């Protein structure tokens, strides 16, 4: 009887122990998926946090890029303005040099030939039929007012300091005497210059009334040598 009771007790202990092991395994099996889910959530949270931090960093960098681009555009605009000012200054210097006759220039323009009257009545004053410095100066004033860039008389380049005076039957240009006919060439818009001279009651009409022979024609290939001071 004692042996049977011992086996019965041992069986009961084994049964309880087995039940406890099975229950413990069951709890462990239930906790494991939860741990996996917790780890996955932590990982996702960490990734989301890292992504948010990266997006903030990117936004900061984008702002810096925008500010730098603004600075670059401002510098480019400043440089463009400086280049334009420099270009304008160079153009102004070139125009001044051309006006002063310091550079050789070529281009289109007009040619105006002034000559003394071919027939002079014997009972008239011969001076009233000759080209005088006043006639030439009248032509020069009109040409300059109409935008002529360069002017020459009988091939002699004029400058801002040039002078034209009469000395008997000849005209003195910058100290050089020139007899008639006087060939006045002007560089510029030939259409504008021609119309300015031919305007009704203008320069050419006044020259004709003074018995001056006038011949005007346009030119496409005028050349003006630079002026050399004596």
From TrEMBL:
The alphabetized UniProt keywords are:
Coiled coil
**InterPro entries linked to this entry:** DUF881
The keyword Coiled coil is assigned to this record: yes
**Ranges in coiled-coil conformation:** 51-85
| Keyword Coiled coil in record | yes
The Swiss-Prot or TrEMBL record describes its family as follows:
Belongs to the UPF0749 family.
Q: Which PANTHER family match?
A: UPF0749 PROTEIN RV1825, UPF0749 PROTEIN YLXX
**Protein's name in the database:** DUF881 domain-containing protein
Q: Which species does the entry assign this protein to?
A: Ectobacillus antri
> What does the record give as the organism's lineage?
Bacteria, Bacillati, Bacillota, Bacilli, Bacillales
